[in-house]
Design a protein that fits this description.
single chain, mainly alpha, about 140 residues, 3-stranded antiparallel sheet, about 10% strand
C-alpha cells in the first residue's frame, strides 16, 4: 500500500510539473474545471430539470469534478511524500476504521483493505472534512 501510494503521489507531481498546457492529464482536468461556469449558467437560468439536477449534477458531475480537479499543489504533495518517507506520516489506507483501546490509552487505526495496517497512537487529530449535514450545522 505504502509503495503504491508513493508511486501515485510521485506521478501526480510529475503530471503537475508538465503543466496544464502541455501536460495531457492536467490539461484535460483543467478543461473539466473550466466547465463549471457554464454549469452555473445552466443552473441560474433553469436549464436543468429537477431529475437532471439530481442525477447528472449532484450524483455525477459534481463528485467527479471534485475528485479530479480539486487537490493540493505539487509542493504540498512533495512535502507529504517526504513526511511519509521519513516515517513522520503514516497513511493507514482506504476505509479507515478507528477504535479506542481504553486499557492501553491509545487510538487504533486500521484499514480492512490493507493487511497489517494497524497504527496505534496516544493522540488522534481528525483532519477529514465532515459530510455536510444540516442537522449538525450551527
Amino acid at each position: 500500500w505504502r509503495e503504491w501510494l508513493l508511486t501515485r503521489l510521485g506521478q501526480d507531481v510529475a503530471d503537475a510539473l508538465e503543466g496544464n498546457v502541455s501536460g495531457p492529464l492536467k490539461s484535460a482536468l483543467d478543461a473539466l474545471r473550466d466547465l463549471r461556469n457554464e454549469i452555473r449558467l445552466l443552473i441560474d437560468h433553469n436549464g436543468l430539470t429537477a431529475d437532471s439536477h439530481r442525477d447528472h449534477l449532484d450524483r455525477w458531475y459534481t463528485p467527479l469534478n471534485a475528485f479530479l480537479s480539486i487537490g493540493p499543489p505539487a509542493s504540498r504533495i512533495r512535502e507529504m511524500i517526504a513526511l511519509i518517507e521519513a516515517g513522520v506520516l503514516t497513511i493507514v489506507g482506504p476505509d479507515v476504521q478507528m477504535e479506542l483501546d481504553e486499557e492501553a490509552g491509545e487510538f487504533v487505526a486500521s484499514s480492512p483493505k490493507v493487511p497489517g495496517s494497524e497504527v496505534r497512537a496516544g493522540v488522534l487529530i481528525e483532519a477529514r472534512l465532515p459530510d455536510i449535514d444540516l442537522r449538525r450545522t450551527a
